[in-house]
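Forwarding the complex inputs:
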Amino acid sequence: MGKSIGVGLIGFGVVGGEVARVLSDKAKVLAAQVGCPIVLRKVKVLPADLKRPRARQMNAGLFTTDEDAFFNEPGIDIVVEAVGGENPALSYLERALSGGRHVVTSNKEVIAKHGARLHALAGQHGVGLRYEASVGGGIPLIAPFQDDLVANKISRIYAIINGTTNYILTRMAKEGVDFSSALKKAQELGYAEANPRNDIEGIDSTYKLAILASLAFHAQVRPEDIYHEGISRLGSRDFRYARQLGFAIKLLAIAKEEDGSVEVRVHPVFIPEDSFLAKVDGVYNAILVEGDLIGKVLFFGEGAGALPTSSAVVADVVALAQDVVLGVRCRAGWRLEAGKVIRPMSEVDTRYYLRMVVADQPGVLAQIATAFGDHHISIASVIQHEADSAAQAAEIVIMTHPAREASMQQALGELEHLTVVKEISNFIRVEA
Amino acid sequence: MGKSIGVGLIGFGVVGGEVARVLSDKAKVLAAQVGCPIVLRKVKVLPADLKRPRARQMNAGLFTTDEDAFFNEPGIDIVVEAVGGENPALSYLERALSGGRHVVTSNKEVIAKHGARLHALAGQHGVGLRYEASVGGGIPLIAPFQDDLVANKISRIYAIINGTTNYILTRMAKEGVDFSSALKKAQELGYAEANPRNDIEGIDSTYKLAILASLAFHAQVRPEDIYHEGISRLGSRDFRYARQLGFAIKLLAIAKEEDGSVEVRVHPVFIPEDSFLAKVDGVYNAILVEGDLIGKVLFFGEGAGALPTSSAVVADVVALAQDVVLGVRCRAGWRLEAGKVIRPMSEVDTRYYLRMVVADQPGVLAQIATAFGDHHISIASVIQHEADSAAQAAEIVIMTHPAREASMQQALGELEHLTVVKEISNFIRVEA
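Prediction (whole assembly, two chains):
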């Protein structure tokens, strides 16, 4: 055989360290798969990384803290970026691709924001760019959209793609705890970061949905195109009502296409409690895809963690190594079709759950129903519990039939100004 | 572009007809994916196929009933076999590969029985062989095992891969009907064939499991290596007891590997009712895979039908067409590792559910418990209902702790000879 495939690794955190371990521990199996050995030739690290136990077990000559030294190292066919975040990761990827190296990354933010341009850069330099680990950890998702489902016209994606929020929502649903104590528990267990904003506000999910929707619909979907709401305003009362009405509450990343109009949004959603996605608990991820030929297909697994992520990263390394061995210099990038437009959130049609506190007096429901009726929103059901006689207030919950988001927002604006409405406590969209 | 990729199709039944439709209707999208058009150049049919409405809409010159004419047709890069069954499909595949054509097939029986040899033949002739549609319809499964999960050591596969039996079991569980009326309904709906033996006896599942296990464990697993039992002896009483004990009954295809020893079996199984697989209803398929890096990953979708099958077939055609365009002549075949052995069914360890009719008299349970104890089988729980005083008989249900299959079979042999045991009504393995 003689030949070998050289890998350069940027980043030696939990993912980078695990990738290095897998390349070493499974060298024999991977070589059998590719037809020649895959050899880790250089690791670009931060000084602090050198103190990690795993780094100290490895040949010290593999490591460098110097970016130029890393990129000047000869014999690197494939660069693996495991740094995360937009910068400096983006510049590493650009430098690797421009230098004629194939690239593997797990970086959802960079791919979501710059995927089309990076693919074009890879094309110019005749190299490959892969990022299976960027969405859903070790669950195969990028490859299915790029290859296995290629004959389908994809109509919908419903995805639980953030384990942190799904863990928090699961605890809230099962134990009746409030958001802040569920978050605290997630932080204690290492499922949520000290600064959890990216996860709980749905930003992480928008990066991942941007990638999936771009691939599925052959459209350039940017993170900023995606309407997003987080989970921090969900109350334990919402979970109780959801259960009573036969629903679960999940943070869903939703993407739909109809006649070239692409709808993309991330927000808490009521979904039927007997649906598969309602049963996805804890840190697990699940992605439901609907296509004209496949019907419904669902992918489920651990969406994060060093091991699942390294599974996807190493699979990408193997695929690129096979291309090197087979003499394939470059595969096609994102295939963007002309004429696709992103539908504004205001034009989305969906059902709504609305919880509010109203004055406990006659005629209240009539006033509310009138406000809805004026905007052509039809009420499907109403729950009104015993009034709090001391406060002279009652809580009511309304489920609507499908309505236009803009109409609903206008109706909400009017409801807020009714003197009988003391508080609009929450407002959650429904996918049935 | 100038160039195009020629496809020859063998078989024009429901799957073949749908593949022809997709190649035609989606020609533009597929050409964009490949970089040049994919053109159907010849269809080998049976005379009766020519009367199908779809055939009459197509150019009559595309069709031939003559095998030699088909294989002598110039400009065919990829042969799609959609005939099914072992013969003559096997000879078509051999002729296509030997003639230097890439091959796509949905034929589980041929791949299960002859996959390794056909891969070797493809290798000799420098062509590709793909069969994504052979297991799980449109659900990506072959590609995940061959590519996406390649860094994993797979330890287990639990699969519902026969929609017919899953439909029947779902009706039996939900409606309390018996096997024969559920089968009749499945036949009326077209979910079961007039001769349903291959499905209900678990034979179809052994073909599919042989393919998955061979790929997952890099071992040659033949259909005849797989222990199989069908679902026809399940009674509605078993479903009632299962529910009472917190289980569902599914026909599972199970594959495990530990230290080079491969366990492969297809039979009805009690699985916990809150597990994902327990919730897979109707004709849907689901495949749960456990690996050292990914943990658990699950694939779910429609496991059969012309549309999902054509999704997988056309994806394979596209993948091979891309290889043709990129100049890739051949990929590696089944990577078989030395030293793997198939564990005999008698050495499998599992838990058991046992339902029997016994004499309604003192000391019966002691005699049964002694028979189990003599074979080192430990009883986990016993359910005994009101006796039928007229018959002087009682039904008892026993759940065991894990035990060796050989021991269990010996114990059952002894129980049968106890005069207090009137009938061993059923015996179902338990995966918890």
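The mean pLDDT of chain A is 95.
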